[in-house]
């Protein structure tokens, strides 16, 4: 089950990387306007890095929550087996 | 859910710290430039480390007073999380120093003595691995942990304040006082301390719960 989920994540990652690689070739075309794009390009593009850090941080938090829940499940199983 | 509110609080505070830490106006002083924003991320790592090492030494003392092996598990879990945060603090400080002090390792007393203190704590973790007998390991490492904490404070706090150092808070550079930190920065800095510390406590409780499952004979 875990292996399947892991290989699924890896496949998604590789697909995403190929998408980014494609985006890299067309980087000169990345000139879309609009409020969101303008916001990210303002102040020396600092908000891009703010976004990068938020993505990393939220990723770590999701990982911690997952670990937390896994431990809770394991603890519950332990308690049940002791009760029997 | 009522048990988890402080974890959510930590995440909310840290999202605020990351956004505000990069976007608020800060005074641009000398070679520091924008790197003063490192204050919101580098200093909290040390606060987390001190919190963890304090939890660790208190549990070691409690172990030595009652020989309760659970205390030993708490102490070792806190020490390993503390070392983790110490390494993060040291790495971020070294990167910061590279671009503001003119070198990664500049024989700065604060940096060198902190490295020594971290190595003492790493020795604690290695010492634990080297003793297979669980009671002997608990006693010897508890005593070592108290010595380590007794060295940590002079090495990282007292001696660097008495000698010249590039690091703020030495004999020649102003310390972390009410007069020399910009007021706007405090609005991010203090929440940063709280948020990062709560996150480190979360990681610590995860490790403790893992140890409880691993050593369930002790924790019955």
From TrEMBL, chain A:
It comes from the Bacteria. The chain crosses the membrane at residues 47-67. Keywords: Membrane, Signal, Transmembrane, Transmembrane helix. Residues 1-23 form the signal peptide. This is CcmD family protein. The lineage of its organism: Bacteria, Pseudomonadati, Bacteroidota, Chitinophagia, Chitinophagales.
TrEMBL record, chain B:
The chain crosses the membrane at residues 9-29, 41-64, 76-99, 111-130, 142-159, 187-207. InterPro entries: Cyt_c_assembly, Cyt_c_biogenesis_CcsA/CcmC. It is a multi-pass membrane protein. The keyword Membrane applies. The keyword Transit peptide does not apply. Its main location: membrane. It comes from the Bacteria. It is found in: Membrane. Residues 12-161 form the Cytochrome c assembly protein domain. This is Cytochrome c biogenesis protein CcsA. The gene is ccsA.
